[in-house]
Amino acid sequence: MDLNRISTITADELLDSRGLPTLEVTVVSRGGTAGSAMVPSGRSTGRFEAVELRDGDAARFGGQGVLKAVEHVKGEICTALLGMPVDNQAAIDRTMIELDGTGTKARLGANATLGVSVACARAAASLHGLPLYRYLGGAGARVLPVPMFNVLNGGKHASQGTDIQEFKLVPAGAPSFREAVRYAVETYHALGEILKDRNLPTNVADEGGYAPGLPANAAAMDVIMLAIERAGYRPGEDIFIGLDPAATSFHHDDAYRLTRDNLTLSTPEMIAYWKDWLGRYPLISLEDPLAEDDWLGFAAITAALGDSVQIVGDDLFVTDSRRLARGIREHCCNSILIKPNQIGTLTETFETVRLASRAGYTCLVSHRSGETEDALIADLAVALGTGQIKSGAPARGERVEKYNRLMRIERELGARCHPSGEIGLSRTWRRSALICPNKHLSLRLVRNARVGHNGALAEMAFLP
Predict the structure, then answer these.
(1) Annotated binding residue at 314?
(2) Which residues belong to CATH 3.20.20.120 in the chain?
(3) Does residue 168 carry a catalytic annotation?
(4) Which member of 24, 52, 207, 348 is catalytic?
(5) Which terminal residue of the chain, N or C, has fewer Cβ atoms less than 10 Å from its own Cβ?
(6) What is the C-alpha separation between 356 and 123, in angstroms, rounded?
(7) Pick the residue with more confidence: 206 or 190?
(8) Which intervals of the chain form a coiled coil (predicted)?
(9) Mean predicted confidence (pLDDT) in 419-432
């Protein structure tokens, strides 16, 4: 009997961190090894993402149920995959892609295909007696990522907050992942105390960040700078700042409308706005600074600011290698956000990272606003060697679980959690490295590393 063959696939409708239905999938091999996966869901979603299948039945969960996706897993997908080797990830994922037949997972649902894809990977890892990061990434999977903590929320994640969706702490000056977490936690609590001192609310939004009603967008940057210093750290040396403006959310009628600042800006003016912030704050990563269909604008901002800051495409690329290929051709961004549920399978996620790495783009693995206790992205960041991860604030169990998982991986790897290979500073980061000298933060090109299926990976991570 082939013990690695798939024997059963089951699925269930459970809840995510926002109290909305999501999918849990369990795959069991003939040898008895099992793997489960829960699928996250986004609130601020790009319109080019793979389709998350919802029931549309207003009588259940306001139409947000996922029973159709559950039935697709237990029916068509199960029938197609039964008897296949659980450790042939590419064949499993290709079978589901062909079965769906739409190119966007619109028929079966990307939530159904991703749940099965990840559950199969976990069952296979168990079959081989390996942790998931090692199964997916091989012996070279030993780079711990620099974490980004979303500590102030606005946009679609907090309706009473700033126009800008995420203000993130980036503790890249820490000597280890565990210490990076400590830096961020202490700063997060210092930020909460500052808000209390100013009689501002300290309730948290979807991703665990505070959502005070600040008078202007720059006020959020100022209060974060103060929190970093109050916690005993140095802005621009110990802790940097990352942003996810999610600019599509405030782009209307061909203009960027920042209501907190009482500004209506054209694309060139929006780029000038970010350039001004680069001169005032230790801003190291800028995600979705323009709208998701503003290709000319992204090319312009990359040309203008790409030597000074990481410009990350999320809604622009949606973890889709086809859209990324266009971005590479048109010189848009120098980094890509990686969200597996935007594309629907692990194989396609790996393909996108491989393409990004060949083009010299960095990769930032990310959670979603509707999360679960599943810590897939922690293992994925190590497996892919991306060197960066964001999973919200150091608050709320579904966020903290990812950071806890990475601390466990760091402990497990011990002295082995350092990268090997050829290390060099990329052109993209030369200028910022000179502005903010920091031996712990660099962009490294690791060649011929055994990390997943990648031959060359660009990484921002901790150095020995």
Answers:
(1) yes
(2) 138-460
(3) no
(4) 207
(5) N
(6) 28
(7) 190
(8) none
(9) 29
Q: Is 244 annotated as a binding residue?
A: yes
How many other CB atoms sit within 10 Å of the CB of residue 215?
A: 11
Q: What is the pTM of this model?
A: 0.90
**Out of 105, 156, 339, 402, which one is annotated catalytic?**
339
CATH fold for domain 138-460:
TIM Barrel (3.20.20)
Instruction: Determine whether the annotation assigns residue 89 to a binding site.
Output: no
Q: Are 402 and 382 in contact (CB under 8 A)?
A: no
- Which residues of the chain form CATH 3.30.390.10? 6-129
Is residue 369 pLDDT above 80, yes or no? Answer: yes
Which amino acid type is present at position 227? A
Q: What CA–CA distance (Å, rounded) separates 403 from 435?
A: 29
Nearest Cα residue to 145 out of 400, 334, 409: 409
Whether 13 is a known active-site residue: answer: no
pLDDT at 461 over 70: no
* 12 annotated as ligand-binding: no
- Output the pLDDT for position 45: 67
